[in-house]
Structure formats: C-alpha cells, structure tokens
Amino acid sequence: MALRTPIRVHIVGRPQFDIEEFLGFLAASRMDWRRSAGAGQAEELIEAAGRVCYMSFGVNQSERSNVEYIRNLVDMGHESVLEHVNWSFVITGISRALSHQIVRHRVGFAFSQLSQQYHDESDAEFAMPAEIEGNPRAEAVWERAVSTAKEAYSEILQLLDQKPEHGESSQLNPRESRRAIRSAARSVLPGCTETTLFMTANARALRHFFTVRGGIPGDREMRDLALELFRLVTREAPAVFFDFRIAKLPDGSEMVQRVSTGPTQ
Ligand SMILES: Cc1cc2nc3c(=O)[nH]c(=O)nc-3n(C[C@H](O)[C@H](O)[C@H](O)COP(=O)(O)OP(=O)(O)OC[C@H]3O[C@@H](n4cnc5c(N)ncnc54)[C@H](O)[C@@H]3O)c2cc1C
Hints:
Layout: E1 8-13, H1 19-28, H2 41-54, H3 66-76, E2 86-95, H4 96-102, E3 109-113, H5 136-162, H6 174-186, E4 194-202, H7 203-213, H8 220-236, E5 244-248, E6 254-258
Antiparallel strand pairs: 1-2, 2-4, 3-4, 5-6
Helix pairs in contact: 2-3, 5-6
Bound molecules: flavin-adenine dinucleotide.
Flavin-adenine dinucleotide binds next to helix 7.
C-alpha cells in the first residue's frame, strides 16, 4: 500500500503581459510609464490595470515602486485589480476529501477534476493523513480499511460487468453502462482516495484562500497544499503576497499566515 504521497503542484499557466502593446496604448495617449526594475509580468499587469483607473502615468505618476503600488491597492481594498492575474495548476497527491473542501471556493477559481465515472480507479492510490503516519497501529488499521475498500471496488466492478442483465446498466449503451458501473463501485472508495485537480485561480482569490485556509492548525493536508501553492506564486509575484509568510506551528509543521502590515489593515 502506498503511504503518504507528497502533494505535488505544477504551475502550468501564468499571466502574459503584452508590454509593447500597452506602451503603444500609452504613447497614443502621449503618456509614458516609469516602470520598476525587477517587477515581473504579473506584478506589472496589476500595476498597469490599477494605473489605468486614474491614468496615473507620466506627470501624474507618483514615486511609488511596483511593490508599494500593489501594497497600496490591497491596503485601500482596491483588490479587484488583482483579478487580472491568473495562474493554472495541476495538483496531484491530494485526497478527494480535500478536493471537496477546495471546490467550495466559488469566486475566482475554476476546477477540472479527475472523474471517477470515466476513470477506472482500480489502481487508485490513497493519501495517508499525516496524523496517522508514524503511528504503527493506526497505520495498520488505516491500511486494512483502505485495502478492503480497494478490493470491494474491484469486486463490484467485476460483478456488475459480468452480469449487466441484473443491473440498471443493462438498458444503457456501453459508455453509459461503464459510467453506471464505475459510479456504483466508487461508492465504496474512501475520502482518502487520491485525485488530480486542474485548478485556475486569480491572485485575489488565492490571497483569500491563503487567509482562510492556509493557517488552520487542525487541517494539515489543506495547510500542506496552501504551502505548495504559496511557494509557487510567491516566486512568480512576491509583491502580490507581500503580507503573507510561512510560519511554524509548535509541532514544527508549517502554515501560510497573513501578517498585519500596519494601521490600514
Ligand atoms: C475553518 C473552516 C470551517 C469550515 N467548515 C465548514 C462546514 O462545516 N461546512 C461547510 O459546508 N463548509 C465549511 N467551510 C467552508 C466555508 O463555509 C466556505 O464554503 C469555503 O471556505 C469557501 O470560502 P468562501 O465562501 O469565502 O470562498 P468563495 O466562495 O471563493 O467566496 C469568496 C468571497 O466572495 C464573497 N461571496 C461569495 N459568494 C457569495 C455570496 N453568495 N453572497 C455574498 N458574498 C459572497 C464572500 O466574501 C466570500 O468570502 C469551512 C471553512 C473553513 C475555513
């Protein structure tokens, strides 16, 4: 039985800012933009969108750097500007139970998840919770339960496949019959069955996600996912996540924490 497979997050989509086109737009308005050295595409996209609101280019541009500009947007609550920046991720090694919590986030997220109706789960892996790992007796109980469920899944698949005349699926075309059989069989799979999620989220939605999900001490799997996501997006656009950091809990595990940045928070 596979033990705890690490959560893996691949960043597969990122914002692309057509700076030449944008500078062309400014030139046509006889304006220019003093850009901050070192700002990435995501960060410049946000700054550009924010500045368009006030046309604060050229003589109207303040001395604020890109980092300060984004921080000011957040401090003012002008966060819709952050929605222009999206990243796409492929996430593996998470449980179906965790995915159920993630997809509750309705705003600024898009999800595509491995289907248990179209995908045969006979070779499914299972994500052992961190709390169980390292406790030999709990591990044994967990492995026994998961093995039993896995065997039951395969057995139900086989039984329903062999005798379609006894099931609802007998009236269905082969594709729908397979769907019906897998739907019936998956009913015995546990919440720790691993899944794959293709997830797109904008910067504002991710900030909200880190705030409400990143630091719950009793939700280790969620924290681990938040940490993976956070490490990736802070590499992509540190200015956007200026008020978050990685902190340690007393047990040594980590969390994503939003820190107070001043009186405007
Ligand atoms: C500690 C914790 C415990 C939880 N326990 C449970 C539980 O026991 N049972 C359960 O069902 N869920 C539970 N949840 C899930 C929670 O209720 C939310 O569904 C989930 O966290 C998504 O958060 P959200 O609605 O803020 O995010 P999103 O859906 O992404 O929404 C983002 C923000 O948009 C605004 N918004 C979105 N939709 C609306 C709307 N319809 N009307 C007004 N404003 C809106 C809100 O400001 C919201 O915060 C829990 C979450 C946490 C963090």
